[in-house]
Amino acid sequence: MRETKHTLPILSVEDLQIEFRDHSLPETAVHDFDLILHAGEIVGIVGESGAGKSLSALAIAGLLKRHSAAKAGRILFDDLDLLNCPREVLREYQGDEIAVIFQEPMSSLDPLMRIGPQVEESLRIHHPDIDRAERKRRALEALESVGLTDTERVYRAYPHELSGGMRQRVMIAAAMIAEPQILIADEPTTALDVTVQAQIIALLKEINRTKNTAILFISHDLSLVRQLCGRVVVMRDGRIVEEGETARVFADPQDPYTAQLIDAIPRVEKKESAGREQGETILSVTGLDAGYPGHPPRRIVHDVSFSLKKGEILGLAGESGSGKSTLAKAVLGLLPLMNGTIDGAGLRSAMVFQDPYGSLNPAKTIEWILTEALTGGRRRNFSREELHRRAAAALAQVELPESFLERRPAELSGGQRQRVAIAEALIGSPDLIIADEPVSALDVTVQAQIITLIEKIRRETGAAILLIAHDLRVIYRVCDRVLIMKQGRIVEEGDVERVYFDPQEEYTKELLRAAGIGSERDA
Amino acid sequence: MRRALQRIRAYWNRSAMFRAGAVITGLVFFFILSGMICRSWPPTAMDATARLSGFSAAHLLGTDHLGRDTYSRMVSGAGTTLFIAVGTVLIGALGGSVLGALCGYFGGPADEIIMRIVDALFAFPSILLALVFVSLFGSGRYHVIVALGIAFIPSFARTVRGEVIRERERDYVLSAGLHGISPLRIIFFHILPNTGDVLLSAVLIGFNNAVLAEAGLSFLGIGVQPPDASLGRMLSESQQYLFSAPLTALMPGILLVLMILGFSLLGEGVRSAGN
Amino acid sequence: MLRKLISAAATLFAVSVLVFGAFALIPGDPALKKLGTQATQESLARMREQMGLNAPLPVRYARWAVHFINGDPGTSYSYDIPVRTLLGDKLPVTLALVLFSFVLLIVISIPLGIRHAKYEGRLFDRVFLVLGQIVMAIPPFFLGILLTWFFGIVLRVFTPGGYVSYRQDPAGFLAYLFFPALAIALPRVAMTVKLLRAEVLKEATKDYVRTAYSRGNSTMSVLYRHVLKNAFLPVLTFLAMNLTDMVAGSVVIEQVFGIPGIGRFLLVSILGRDHPVVEAIIMGLAAFIIGVNLLTDLCYRLIDPRIGGES
After folding, report:
1. What pTM was computed for the model?
2. Confidence class of residue A23 from pLDDT cuts 50, 70 and 90?
3. Cross-chain Cβ contact C256/B261 below 8 Å
4. Yes or no: is domain C91-260 CATH 1.10.8.640?
5. Count of structural domains, chain B
6. DSSP string over A135-146
7. CA distance B42 to chain C (A)
């Protein structure tokens, strides 16, 4: 039945080629890109960073800087070639027939302009005949239709006064106000929390259903694409490697890379209980309150208790602002305790950070970074040979060759940097490693490799690991137990099997649902 | 050392401004060195037979109203100016970096108070600050160095503090703290190497400002005192003969512009190549 | 805003303590300075008593401050005339010069900066980049000499040294101020243009600009409706800083063009160690600078909704 709805092609991209003269950007080329978009359908473009998916979408939206890229091919809309027509003609379509929403709702709105005029802008440009009062009426209507309440207030607000989710709704309202035929959504939920993400996806679905707007959905997240899109295009290194009905592609991928991408998504299926022997408890936290001192002090974590055994991986899940990182900092002693006790006498601990670009000192060599971590800056106590040997051994543990010792962070890829960061944590033979979102900045295939590495390290070193992540799939894959955190409190705790397959708390259920785990589990 | 050369080559390759600045600064240094090696007249010698003369074989760039050789006075004046600029920047950069780094890293009330003072000083134009210092302590080349050096501390302190605060928030600093590395080592061995480009560019711009300020003070007659030659003083002395002998004023002025231009281009080049 | 006012007052107080302290503590006896080296011991002692120099420092500071607030910054050592009278007819001259050059700065640099950014990479842009860099490198006093030489001596557009008082001939006074004001303004024009260009180009790479284009805005309307307001914020601070720097510039330029303003008088007073005059001028400058900064803060609050919400 869906098929009959979109038989009419409204956009066709033929043989699109894009090449930047400046190859310093990660996404710098697109080759032989073909796409047909029918009225009312949702097509996903997926791929890892550097695949050229955003670049293709920007080209369709007419947003590539004209002089910076060499382009060839055709983008046909309304019998008009948008790629090769004059700017003035293209502008007639931008915002009116083709609208775009972007990844960062924070920065995609003009910070000095009130929401109202920004939402109305497409109307003002393309329908100058509509008077002010009518424009405002439609803007309020558009804000309401994206699920915002108190629209009068939102209309007068500035972007910084709204939350991330609200801003993305505002972006959608602004994009939809002129009722375009095509909505291009470039990673629209990547910067948002899972529950908000689910709401935005639902909103896009509803817009598609009620207004019959065709949506081109660009994402690196395959599970999102699977939830939303009828058809999917898989890209790699600037080329389309596979295209087809979403259900078919996921069930029976034809291209090995597609298969690899799908495999890289951690699955939530009943796993064999490994029957891991339980070690002694090395860390126990009771009744912990933590936060930032000041006037007045900000108490972020409330009454948290948990314990961690030797060789155990404990997951800590929750949305941004739930206090995960604050809890980690408190456990590491980076924040003063406001209440409660942390019992882990003589524990050697280390940390792995989310962003491997920020956690390695860019001015230093890998060897310097590793040995500095080993010696704590007191290099005189060690011989040069020993330092070198220990650094090389740490690299070997994370499966990197010794030759990397001389390199600097800028010369490594994201995955390699995260390996070095793990080596830096391991070099002091810690009993406890706290990993704060260690894979969320990485591409899915790299993510899978790092997860495997973390499991290997637990096996080989027996260190306890506290793994903080917002991605419930990652936690399920790696962890033995999980803590679910909300607004600074732990709302649910237990073995991952139990929590994922028999959640007790409404919030846990909501998180699982938002991550699309429920459907898979029931299947 | 090899890395320093690599950096310089990177600046050279990446920035046309750096190249232009290097060439101009090179020419200025060549001019000064050439004069030191083959100086036909001492800078203070007065040739009564040739006052306010134009270009000639005896006086390559002419003479001033007392018959002193413009060429050798320019060489000696530029030397003085450079000497003062180096001293000034040394005091300003060292004092400012240490102050800014400590304040930026540790924060707290001490930082609050020090930065309040630094901001107040910074809001005060540095040539006025130097004027006040000189009026308090007297003039002459060493007084000028100290006065300008102190006047330059605020801008270096602000720059370095800003950089340190920005870097301090980054995970590698947090990570260093977790490995038990002492705060002073973190500041000077972990953070400061990452501010290299910014600091170098600030130093070069500092040279530019120091030359400008010294020339300004000397022009006003409260900088370098006679018989020391100085480009600023040469300008103020020759100003009244602008009608009859414009070259006596234009020559030192052009040299001054080239010195300032060279340093500012180098500084801008480093900054633009850095990011 | 109230906090800003209090902190401004505190800064002014700190500056006054520093200034008074510095001049009170440096070697040199004001009484000796006033009476000359031939004065007898008794007359010196009497003079010290009369000048209140024997009181403890805090008392002297309090007296000085109270007088200052009441508009009486003391008496000049060199002229034995109230400082107020001495500065009275010089203040308008310097004020006119500084404002004149500030107006020139705004009028020239803002349109030029926008144009510059619009033509990024083209010939206009490149030529002005080089030109700007050179102009920035010319010290104001040399620029003054160059302008005097070229417009005064070669072209004879004005008479060097032909200053007329604003009391005699206001129009002629302003006309004479044109070149001095230009000499102060030009290097700053170059700096402002450069900053504005860089800020506009920086803003142009931001996400919201892409959003604006995606709605079908033309380049001009993206520039004028969105980019400029954002790009202007950092330029505002810079302009305010320039206003205070121009006061410093006027000291030098008044010297070059022979204008009897505050700057020139400050110089004479510094060389003559006329401390009451120097103190008064510095305090005036500090008040001016603090006032300008307060005003800048106020402007930010009006333009940027992100500031001011918190306090």
Report:
1. 0.83
2. low
3. no
4. no
5. 1
6. HHHHHHHHHHHT
7. 25
